[in-house]
Amino acid sequence: MNEENINANEAPKKVSPLVSLEEDLKFYSDSIKEVSVEIMVEGISLYPIFIAHQHEVKIGELILNREELNTKWTIQASTLEEFVEKGIIHPDKKESFIKNYKRPEDYMCVFVIVPDGANFIFYPFK
Q1: CB 3.0–4.6 Å: which of 29, 41, 57, 76 could bond 126 by disulfide?
Q2: What span, in angstroms and rounded, lies between the C-alpha atoms of 103 and 40?
Q3: What CA–CA distance (Å, rounded) separates 56 from 49?
Q4: Taking the C-alpha atoms of 97, 105, 110 and 37 in order, what is their torsion angle to the nearest 10 degrees?
């Protein structure tokens, strides 16, 4: 087999978008923590959720715009209550979500939206 065939059979390795997300979350950490504390102190929610996306979403309030900050991800702030209200978290799953929610003083709860779908992650504040 010549080299051409070997290389043609190897799928190009795609870099996960989560690599750039981690970089941005480190960069955004202090700002996200500030907003998280504000949401809790003001009595808005005990369960802040931050939406990380690269497109447009219709949930939460824009807090960090990737175009303005020259980063790869935009972050919006929301709450468990809004996620239930919008049907993203089913009311029957609310208690389970609360049980699995990590200490908001130590972790940001991030709802990551990528073309393949969306998922929750808990990322430690720096």
Answers
A1: 29
A2: 12
A3: 17
A4: 110
